[in-house]
């Protein structure tokens, strides 16, 4: 039966999941994953290698294989994506109480008619632009420049939105969102062809395991470009976007230290927190 909201929880390992029925735990990168004894890995969740999927590309595309699976295989009025260690909440919450504080359907339902887009609260860089932050911390291989080239070729009407996003000092991050079905289709139909082409054009010959996961990082920025364009053309109005708090199980001291080292000592990120 069709649901009004489905939010997938992307996970690559066993973890505690919300019990609210609007959440659908999804094992991402399920294609070919094995246990140490050689048997297929089964986390007890839905898997992203069923139906129409790109599960085999998870090594590079990360969480986006889950987004693709949801786009092609889930029929709900609203579709969303969160992560096993990062969830939307209505109020600020501690990671010690993460699962208990996760956004619930009864909290979301009254907002569904009012808002078309739910996103994490903005992350502000202050001393960096979106472009410079990415270049200083992650980009050894001109990924954003190549993204701009592809957008110019494939969807040039998005170029102004791309440039505005790259020059501002905040973003909605983490590839987390809840969108109406029509907007999710619009976003994925635009983003995935661009991301696939960027992946083909970027020189990957010298990349390590961390660098090879760049498509997921590029797509975080592309989501903001897409949303900027929807605001520009009036498809989405500002008062139809709801920013939500989020709770995450990450090491903030590690993240701040790595950011400052990248900014001032030119040391690129080499692993996630």
Structure description:
By secondary structure, the protein is an alpha/beta fold. The chain has one domain. Helices cover 39% and strands 18% of the residues. The chain has ten helices and ten strands. It has an eight-stranded mixed beta sheet. Strands 7-8 form a two-stranded antiparallel ribbon. The chain is globular. It starts with a strand and ends in an 8-residue tail after the last helix.
Mean pLDDT: 92
Largest sheet: spatial strand order: 3-2-1-4-9-6-10-5
Helix content: 25-40%
Using only C-alpha atoms, the radius of gyration works out to 18 Å
Set out the fold topology:
Elements: E1 3-11, E2 23-27, E3 46-47, H1 58-61, H2 64-73, E4 76-83, E5 86-89, H3 98-101, H4 105-108, E6 117-120, E7 123-124, H5 130-137, H6 143-154, H7 159-167, E8 170-171, E9 177-180, H8 181-201, H9 214-233, E10 241-248, H10 252-265
Parallel strand pairs: 1-2, 1-4, 2-3, 6-10
Antiparallel strand pairs: 4-9, 5-10, 6-9, 7-8
Give a brief rundown of this model.
By secondary structure, the protein is α/β, with parallel strands linked by helices. 39% of the residues lie in helices and 18% in strands. It has one domain (3-265).
What distinguishing features does this structure have?
single chain, 273 residues, alpha/beta, two-stranded antiparallel sheet, 10 helices
């Amino acid at each position: 039966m069709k649901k009004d909201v489905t939010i997938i929880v992307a996970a690559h390992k066993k973890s505690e999941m919300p019990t609210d029925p609007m959440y659908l735990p999804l094992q991402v990168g399920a294609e070919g994953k094995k246990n140490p004894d050689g048997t297929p890995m089964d986390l007890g969740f839905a898997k992203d290698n069923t139906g129409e999927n790109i599960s085999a590309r998870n090594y590079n595309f990360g969480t986006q294989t889950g987004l693709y699976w949801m786009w092609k295989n889930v029929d709900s009025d609203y579709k969303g994506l969160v992560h096993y260690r990062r969830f939307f909440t209505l109020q600020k919450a501690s990671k010690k109480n993460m699962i208990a504080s996760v956004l619930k359907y009864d909290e979301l339902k009254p907002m569904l008619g009012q808002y078309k887009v739910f996103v994490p609260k903005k992350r502000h860089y202050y001393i960096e632009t979106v472009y410079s932050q990415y270049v200083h911390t992650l980009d050894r291989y001109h990924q954003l420049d190549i993204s701009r080239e592809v957008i110019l070729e494939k969807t040039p009407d998005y170029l102004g939105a791309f440039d505005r996003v790259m020059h501002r000092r905040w973003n909605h991050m983490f590839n987390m969102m809840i969108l109406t079905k029509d907007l999710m289709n619009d976003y994925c139909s635009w983003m995935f062809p661009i991301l696939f082409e960027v992946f083909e054009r970027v020189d990957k010959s010298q990349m390590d395991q961390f660098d090879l996961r760049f498509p997921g990082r590029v797509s975080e920025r592309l989501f903001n470009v897409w949303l900027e364009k929807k605001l520009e053309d009036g498809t989405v109005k500002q008062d139809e976007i709801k920013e939500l708090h989020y709770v995450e199980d990450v090491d903030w001291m590690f993240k701040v230290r790595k950011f400052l080292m990248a900014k001032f000592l030119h040391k690129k990120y080499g692993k996630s927190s």
